[in-house]
Design brief:
By secondary structure, this protein is an alpha+beta fold. It has a domain of 196 residues: Rossmann fold (3-Layer(aba) Sandwich). The strands form 4 sheets. Strands 2-1-4-5-6-7 form a 6-stranded antiparallel β-sheet. Strands 8-14-15-3-16-17 form a 6-stranded mixed β-sheet. Strand 6 and strand 7 form a beta hairpin. The C terminus is likely disordered.
Length: 571
């Protein structure tokens, strides 16, 4: 729950620290005193859009900080761990907004800088803000479906349907993909057969084109190669060649070495040169023996080279691409031979998945029908207590054309708030006050299912008064048995029902309008409730009326704590 809310330099607030308590907290004050700023601050704390216009005049930045006791919430703690946020039971959310235009707001969780998205994800798991027109989440069809399934305990059935539907979608996609491949293969069958036959007949080998080019060049220039290699061998081994002429040098080198041993190096170099020239001559003779002037072979090689060139031009520019094109063409043709068996296998899988979807959808629909009736009865019973004596709440389950991952039906909350009127979708309720009270009735029923520990109600008392206000206050007090509730209200009937009363008052500080916040108890609270009653807050009559309202809160009946009269009736 939210234990402390600190606000600094935000709009008309200079610096305040609200200490909140478990149960039902209420915030009151004169119109314009700054109550809405507290809601703005909470919005900033849960990641809502920040504007430099919110910064108090003359200040450099505004700051909002909330301290939360998160208690034992394993799933929530795991969420924090996954985002690298350490938490020992207390979580501090902080947001700063700079006054300079264009500056970005900054956010921290337990001192760790985070993005606005992370702040919103964590903040909205801790706080829900509900106002006259802030209940959009509950108006969305998806949210209504989630509420009904949570109320009816249909989570397992819905998960089973989603898994079955996913399997069906995958099976249908596999059938469609096979049919598309088969159709494409049939359309291109003649061409594929030609490609496969042509490439298989040619039987190209990796890097064959390079070898063919080399052989063609040698055959084309065979005579020139023979002439050149003959010149090399004659220059080395002929009568006037290098080797015969170098032979006599051996005697001269031997004589040098006898006289001066330092010339031994010359002998080594001579020997190396002699052996190298001999090797050149030997390699040249061997190469000459391999030169073949074969016009028939040249014609055959040129035909092979031309064939490979044409295949490369048609099928990707390389021998590897040609080989792959032949393999792919043969695979598509083979598909036509095996498609029937594959299709029957996939269709059997698809049909089984469709049966599983239908079965899972029927189980989920049964749970939803039972939950719809029970939720409608429970909420309808609450509406008269909230000032709508003729109010009826219905849950409509119109069928879908086709079963989807979320079921065979849509979920739509409908209400009829006046006698003789037809029920209309909840989203089309005209009055903001009525809508807020319907939302409150839902919250009372669903309180045990809501994981968010702190609920904020902003002026849900619009358009009501008198006994209806007491009923709304009792409903909030009921919700507060399972959640921390924080309500901003103008009604003394609601304020009197709170466990913890906070007052915001407008004053001046340094010549600038300022709002201050204080917790009121005992006589100070009597004074505030008397002021809200509209009379003289100091008159004996107003104060007595205020005391009666406050006293009645301690004996007000709730759903979780029956009155003594009800208890006696049961006995």
């Amino acid at each position: 729950m939210l234990t402390v809310l600190r606000i600094r330099q935000l709009a008309v607030i200079d610096e305040v620290a609200l200490t909140l308590a478990p149960g039902f907290n209420v915030l009151t004050g004169e119109t314009g005193a700054g109550k809405s700023i507290v809601v703005e601050a909470l919005g900033l704390l849960i990641g809502e859009r920040a504007s430099s216009d919110l910064v108090r005049a003359g200040a450099e930045r505004a700051m909002v900080e909330g301290i939360f006791d998160i208690g034992e919430r394993p799933a929530f703690r795991q969420t924090l761990d996954e985002r690298g946020i350490d938490c020992e039971g207390t979580l501090v959310l902080r947001r700063e907004v700079a006054a300079a235009a264009g500056s970005r707001a900054r956010a921290w969780i337990n001192g760790t800088p985070v993005t606005a998205g992370t702040l919103a994800e964590v903040g909205r798991a801790l706080v829900n803000v509900h106002g006259q027109h802030e209940a959009q989440a509950l108006l969305a069809p998806e949210a209504q479906r989630d509420i009904l399934d949570a109320f009816g305990g249909a989570g397992r059935e819905r998960d089973a349907l989603r898994d079955a539907h996913r399997s069906l979608v995958e099976a249908e996609a596999a059938c469609d993909a096979l049919a598309a491949r088969e159709a494409e293969a049939r359309r291109r069958a003649d061409w594929l057969a030609h490609v496969a036959a042509e490439i298989e007949a040619a039987a190209p080998r990796p890097e064959e084109d390079a070898a063919i080019e080399d052989e063609a060049r040698r055959l084309t220039y065979a005579e020139e190669l023979q002439t050149l290699v003959t010149e090399v061998t004659e220059a080395l081994e002929g009568e006037e060649g290098a080797l015969p002429r170098l032979g006599p040098l051996q005697r001269s080198l031997a004589g040098l070495q006898r006289i001066d041993s330092a010339t031994a190096r010359l002998q080594e170099l001579y020997d190396a040169a002699w052996y190298a020239l001999e090797e050149v001559a030997r390699e040249a003779r061997a190469y000459a023996e391999g030169i073949e002037h074969d016009p028939a072979r040249l014609a055959e090689v040129e035909r092979r080279r031309d064939l490979l060139y044409r295949l490369k031009q048609k099928h990707g520019g390389s021998i590897e691409a040609v080989v792959e094109a032949g393999r792919a063409a043969r695979a598509e043709l083979d598909l036509l031979d095996t498609a029937g068996l594959d299709r029957r296998t996939l269709e059997a899988r698809r049909d089984a998945a469709a049966v599983a979807v239908t079965t899972a959808a029927e189980l989920l629909s049964g749970k939803r029908r039972a939950a719809a009736a029970a939720l409608a009865t429970a909420v309808s019973a609450r509406l008269p207590e909230l000032g709508m004596p003729a109010g009826r709440f219905l849950v409509d389950l119109p069928a879908r054309e086709r079963i989807g991952p979320d079921g065979a039906e849509q979920v739509e909350f409908r209400v009829a708030l006046n006698l003789g009127h037809e029920a209309r979708p909840l989203a089309r309720v005209a009055s903001g006050g009525e809508l807020a009270r319907v939302m409150l009735a839902l919250k009372v029923i669903l309180a045990r299912l809501d994981d968010v520990p702190t609920l904020i109600f902003d002026e849900v008392d619009a358009g009501i008064g008198g006994r209806t206000g007491l009923m709304v206050g009792d409903a909030m007090r009921d919700v507060a048995t399972h959640h921390q509730v924080f309500a901003i209200t103008h009604l003394p009937q609601i304020a009197a029902r709170a466990h913890h009363h906070i007052v915001v008052a407008k004053g001046a500080k340094g010549g600038v309008t300022t709002s201050d916040v204080v917790v009121v108890t005992d006589e100070a609270r009597v004074t505030e409730v008397a002021r809200m009653l509209g009379g003289d807050a100091e008159s004996a009559t107003s104060r007595e009326h205020a005391r009666e309202l406050l006293a009645s809160a301690s004996v007000a009946p709730t759903r979780d704590r029956p009155t003594a009269q009800r208890a006696r009736k049961r006995g």
